[in-house]
Design a protein that fits this description.
Elements lengths: L10 H21 L2 H16 L4 E3 L5 E4 L2 H12 L5 H10 L3 E6 L7 E6 L25 H66 L13 H16 L3 H22 L2
Antiparallel strand pairs: 1-2, 2-4, 3-4
Length: 263
């Protein structure tokens, strides 16, 4: 048959290769986050000694927490600097572990928590380095920023328009208020003048009234003279009582004339 120069590797060569792969896997494992390495070691320990507390799933692609209280109080403190189960679960959630509630096989009322990740596999610590934190939300694109800017501009314009409308309304109300104030002042002046006229009228009426007979006297000179002549005629007629009243009226007329002429 044909000859070949290829040779099968000897056993020492295979041993060296296996050692190199193991060392490379160990180095990769050390690059993984400590919380993942500690959880992985804790699961291996529970699988061996405390399977009723926590263990790997049958397919090795997830792990089960059967007794939360014992895991919290007896096991977690040996692998972490706390004994807080919820804190550990939050850490796993940050690394995108999926949590679900499942019923244990062969039981009715016993439920447990199941945690799984595609790179968290029993017997494969070298895969832990592939587990990463959740990515933060992506920043908004330029289009979204432009939309937000447009919304802000429109809102500012609406506010400006509303402000200008309110200022115009306030100016109109102020002008109307000034008109009302001016009209009120004018009404006050007119009212004051009317009060003076009424007071003067009352004084004049009192001055033109005969204090003896209580009858009003005419202010005009001619009318007063006519009245005086009429009174004298009644006196000449022989009516003594009427003559006395006429004399008193004549005296009042004379007093009024004197007061008007200032003599």
């Amino acid at each position: 048959g044909p000859t070949t120069n290829s040779k099968l590797p000897t056993e020492p060569v295979l041993a060296i290769a296996r050692a190199n792969r193991a060392a490379a896997a160990t180095n990769r494992e050390k690059l993984a986050p400590s919380v993942l390495r500690n959880t992985f070691d804790m699961l291996n320990q529970c699988q061996e000694k405390y399977p009723d507390v926590a263990c790997w799933a049958e397919d090795g692609k997830a792990f089960l927490v059967k007794d939360k209280n014992r895991l919290t109080n007896e096991i977690i403190p040996y692998y972490f600097r706390h004994n807080n189960y919820d804190s550990l679960m939050r850490s796993l959630n940050v690394y995108k572990f999926k949590k679900s509630k499942v019923q244990l096989s062969g039981t009715r009322d016993h439920w447990c928590h199941r945690f799984e990740h595609v790179y968290f596999v029993q017997g494969r610590p070298d895969l832990l380095v592939n587990i990463h934190l959740r990515k933060p939300p992506a920043p908004r694109g330029s289009l979204q920023k432009a939309e937000v800017s447009n919304e802000v501009i429109i809102e500012n314009r609406l506010l400006k328009a509303r402000t200008e409308s309110m200022e115009h309304t306030i100016s109109s109300l102020q002008a109307e208020l000034d008109k009302l104030r001016s009209a009120a002042q004018q009404n006050q002046v007119v009212l004051h003048q009317q009060r003076h006229v009424i007071t003067d009228s009352r004084n004049v009426t009192s001055a033109q009234c005969c204090p003896r007979c209580g009858q009003a006297l005419l202010a005009a000179g001619d009318n007063s003279e006519d009245n005086g002549t009429s009174n004298r005629k009644r006196k000449a007629g022989g009516n003594a009582g009427a003559g006395q009243e006429a004399d008193a009226a004549d005296a009042c007329v004379q007093l009024i004339k004197l007061s008007r002429t200032g003599t």
